[in-house]
What we know:
Helices cover 30% and strands 11% of the residues. It is α+β, with helices and mostly antiparallel strands. A four-stranded mixed sheet has the order 3-1-2-4, with no helix packed on it. A three-stranded antiparallel sheet has the order 6-5-7. The protein is elongated, with a radius of gyration of 23 Å.
Amino acid sequence: xxxxxxxxxxxxxxxxxxxxxxxxxxxxxxxxxxxxxxxxxxxxxxxxxxxxxxxxxxxxxxxxxxxxxxxxxxxxxxxxxxxxxxxxxxxxxxxxxxxxxxxxxxxxxxxxxxxxxxxxxxxxxxxxxxxxxxxxxxxxxxxxxxxxxxxxxxxxxxxxxxxxxxxxxxxxxxxxxxxxxxxxxxxxxxxxxxxxxxxxxxxxxxxxxx
Length: 210
């Protein structure tokens, strides 16, 4: 799937139910030795699950790509030796760091390539959890946002409508109906002492001009 090469692999029947997964509605085939002791692919919030149905067309992840993207192949430990998993070896200890960096790369790509409307929409969605980390809402200053169902284009205010009244709550996304200015976000990060550790590209460009 990652290297876009065609592979031929042999299995029992049509596909391999034991090592076939459905991720975002797409059939994914993992090498059998990749899931023996490594849980890099697992059930996740309903977006990834085992594929117990007969599958025809599938996207195969080769062994080389599987390891280069963070998975670990099972290797025989030898006679009399116990199998030590990648979790026990702490090989996944930096997964959270790598995932955050991957999201940062995607956001940088969005900032450079998407339209202004799309940027504002993504920013409005992502600022809800981000601000919740930087600011604790209170009764005096509650965080006001709305629920949006992108498909039906329905909107619900989180302060006026209970979640039980929202149609298809699993398909709604909370987002800010008023996007803070760049100055406001700079101030919020400064108040939380985040700006001690990061320096925006805009500041770097301004320093070059001066």
